[in-house]
Structures are given as C-alpha cells and as structure tokens.
C-alpha cells in the first residue's frame, strides 16, 4: 500500500473548498482505478482565515463522506502560504506528498501524471509549470518575467519561471524540504535548493474556481524582494562594487579638476552639477543601506527562532 498525502493551504476559501473536495474526490476515484494499492489523505491547513473556511473544513472532514481521509489544522492567525505549506508537510504521513492550492488553479487531474513520473520514470518529484500566463493582468506578467530573470541572474539556486508550488514529492524530498527550518521561507527557492530529480509538467493557466487571489501587486513586490534576499547575497556585492567604482570616478574627477584649475584658474561655476552629484551619491548610499538593512532584518528575524506557525485547532491526533 502506498499513501499519497495532499497538502492544501487554505486562506479564506469557503467558496472554493466544496468544489475542490468534489474534484479531488473524482481524481482519487480515477487514480484508485488506474493504480493498485493507493490510498489518499488530505491535510487542509486553514491559514487563519477570517471567513467560514474552518467551518467548511469541519463539515467536509466531519461526516466521513469524502472518498479520502481528511484532516485539518487551523492556525492561530494568518501566517502566510509558506507557513501553511510547511505545517502541511510536517503533518503529512504519506509516502508521497503533493501540495495543491484550494482554488483549483492547480488542476488535480495532473496528479496522475505526477504519480507516474515518480513511480515509473525514475523522478523524485514532479512539479507543474504554467506555459501561459493568460488571464493574468499583462503588467503583472511583465514584472513576474523580469523578476524570474533577475533572481536567476543573482542566485545560484534555480527558480523556474511559471513554476507553481503544485508538486508531488517522494518522502526523501519532503524530509529534505522540512530539514530547511528557516523562518523566511521562499518555497520556489527551497524546492530548487534541495535539488533531486524533478520533472516539469507543463499545463495551461487555469483561472480560480471561486473566491479571489490573495495577492496584490505590492505584496508580490515585497515577496519578490524576500525571495532575492533569501537566495542570493549578490546585492551586497553589487553595493560594495558600486562603492568602489564611485571612489575611482571621484579620484579621476579630482585629478581632472586639480589639473584644470592649475591650467585655467578657478572661475566659480558648476553648482548645478555639484547638486546633482550630491543627490546621486546620497541616493546611492541610501539604496546600499537599504540593501544591508534587508539582510540585517532577515538575520534578526532568523535569530529569534520563532515558530513558523501556531496551531489553534486541529483534528490530527499526535
Ligand atoms: N494562501 C494561504 N495563505 C495566504 C494566502 C494564500 O494559505 O496567506 C493559499 C490560498 O488559499 C490558495 C493558495 O494559497 O490555496 C494560493 O493563493 P492564491 O490563489 O491567492 O494565489 P495565486 O493563485 O493568485 O498565486
Ligand atoms: Mg490561486
């Protein structure tokens, strides 16, 4: 018997959950018929929702009508999707563990392909990758593409464009992901960092089944900065190199001004250029201090060793 656990982070998903459970039930039935000796469990993580998500979860998991074992954890507040994924992975008991969004943007139908990849094709994990960004605002797609280009230039860890958190992993990969106990979790980077043999399964973007996305443009921007800080220290190197370059330029300019004054005298002029230079250098200094600050802040948060999440309520026995 092999057990597949499905981790489902849920934040204000009361409309989407019944649809999700029905679709997952259908897939579980199909996979049960195709592969022998498979059983399923879902681990729903309610990430401090403010709507009826917890009630919906209790209804779904309480009456035993689902064709798979269903358990839930409910956080004491909203800790973010990364924390929900971590909690779900910690509580998943399966030999294989999948992560799937509750809004059906991760088509559960791909699960069978993923299972084939890890059991028959020799991969350790299989992950879904969107081939299109249709249905997304064009400006968001534009910045998302720039972000992936940038982070892959800055970081040695591969962060795949279009990759979702939707994936199926063998136990060894799950344990590797859990062994990274950092507080600032950037899953896309963590999955790349742990390595292992991964198969990308392409699919076309699907829109949300119900409810709305929790991400605003600004929250995505902050998330992208978190990702870069978590997986690259190159911005620090860029800050120091730009400091060195500016010192060199300043030396050359000083020499030029000294020579020019000796040859032609010193007519008082040039305050606009001085003002520009002061503004430029001031801006650059603030930028570099901001970069240092980002790393310092992350280090500060890591050193506190706070728990990644806190559970308020669950039906999972220890
Ligand atoms: N989610 C979560 N905590 C959060 C935000 C989102 O657990 O703070 C869950 C959400 O319920 C969904 C998944 O993460 O199952 C993806 O969220 P969303 O659909 O808003 O993101 P998008 O698909 O737009 O990237
Ligand atoms: Mg979504």
Strand arrangement, largest sheet? 7-5-6-4-1-2-3-8
End-to-end span in angstroms?
22 Å
Tell me the Rg in angstroms: 25 Å
What is the percentage of strand-forming residues? 15-25%
Give the beta-strand count. 8
The largest sheet is: 8 strands, mixed
Low-confidence stretches: none
From the spread of the alpha carbons, the general shape counts as elongated
Keywords:
single chain, 318 residues, alpha/beta, 8-stranded mixed beta sheet, 52% helix, elongated, binds uridine-5'-diphosphate
List the helices and strands and how they pair.
Layout: E1 2-10, H1 16-34, E2 38-46, H2 53-62, E3 69-75, H3 81-91, E4 96-99, H4 110-120, E5 125-130, H5 138-154, E6 163-170, H6 171-179, H7 187-194, E7 198-203, H8 217-231, H9 234-264, H10 271-304, E8 311-314
Parallel strand pairs: 1-2, 1-4, 2-3, 5-7
Antiparallel strand pairs: 3-8, 4-6, 5-6
Bound molecules: uridine-5'-diphosphate (UDP) and magnesium ion.
The site of uridine-5'-diphosphate has 16 residues, from strand 1 and helix 3.
Description:
It is built from ten helices and eight strands. The model has no long low-confidence stretch (mean pLDDT 88). 29% of the residues are buried. Helix 9 (234-264) runs antiparallel to helix 10 (271-304). Helices cover 52% and strands 17% of the residues. The chain is elongated and about 90 Å long. The chain has 318 residues and is α/β, with parallel strands linked by helices. Strands 7-5-6-4-1-2-3-8 form an eight-stranded mixed β-sheet. The chain has helices at 16-34, 53-62, 81-91, 110-120, 138-154, 171-179, 187-194, 217-231, 234-264, 271-304; strands at residues 2-10, 38-46, 69-75, 96-99, 125-130, 163-170, 198-203, 311-314. Bound molecules: uridine-5'-diphosphate (UDP) and magnesium ion (MG). Uridine-5'-diphosphate is lined by residues 9-11, 13, 47, 78, 80-81, 84, 101-103, 105, 213-215.
């Amino acid at each position: 018997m092999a057990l597949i656990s499905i981790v489902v982070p849920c934040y204000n998903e009361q409309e989407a959950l019944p649809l999700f459970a029905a679709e997952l039930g259908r897939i579980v039935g199909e996979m049960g018929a195709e592969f022998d000796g498979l059983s399923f469990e879902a681990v729903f993580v309610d990430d401090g929702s403010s709507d009826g998500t917890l009630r919906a979860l209790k209804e779904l998991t309480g009456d035993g009508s689902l064709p798979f074992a269903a358990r839930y954890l409910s956080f004491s507040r909203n800790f973010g999707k990364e924390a929900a994924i971590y909690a779900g992975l910690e509580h998943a008991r399966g030999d294989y563990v999948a992560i799937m969004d509750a809004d059906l943007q991760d088509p559960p139908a791909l699960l069978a392909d993923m299972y084939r990849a890890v059991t028959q094709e020799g991969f350790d994990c299989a992950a879904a990758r969107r081939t299109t960004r249709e249905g997304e605002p064009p400006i968001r797609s534009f910045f998302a593409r720039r972000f992936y280009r940038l982070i892959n230039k800055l970081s040695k860890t591969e962060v795949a464009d279009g990759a979702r958190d939707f994936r199926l992993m063998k136990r060894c990969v799950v344990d590797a992901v859990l062994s990274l106990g950092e507080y600032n979790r950037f899953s896309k980077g963590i999955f790349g960092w742990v390595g292992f043999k991964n198969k990308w399964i392409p699919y076309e973007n699907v829109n949300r089944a119900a409810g709305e996305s929790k991400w605003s443009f600004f929250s995505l921007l902050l998330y992208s900065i978190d990702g870069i800080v978590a997986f690259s220290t190159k911005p620090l190197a860029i800050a120091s190199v730009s400091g060195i370059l500016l010192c060199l330029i300043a030396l050359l300019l000083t020499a030029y001004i000294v020579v020019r004054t000796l040859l032609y005298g010193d007519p008082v002029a040039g305050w606009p250029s001085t003002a520009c230079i002061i503004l430029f250098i001031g801006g650059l200094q603030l930028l570099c201090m901001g970069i240092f600050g980002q790393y310092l802040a992350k280090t500060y948060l890591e050193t506190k060793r706070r728990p990644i999440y806190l559970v308020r309520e669950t039906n999972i026995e220890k």
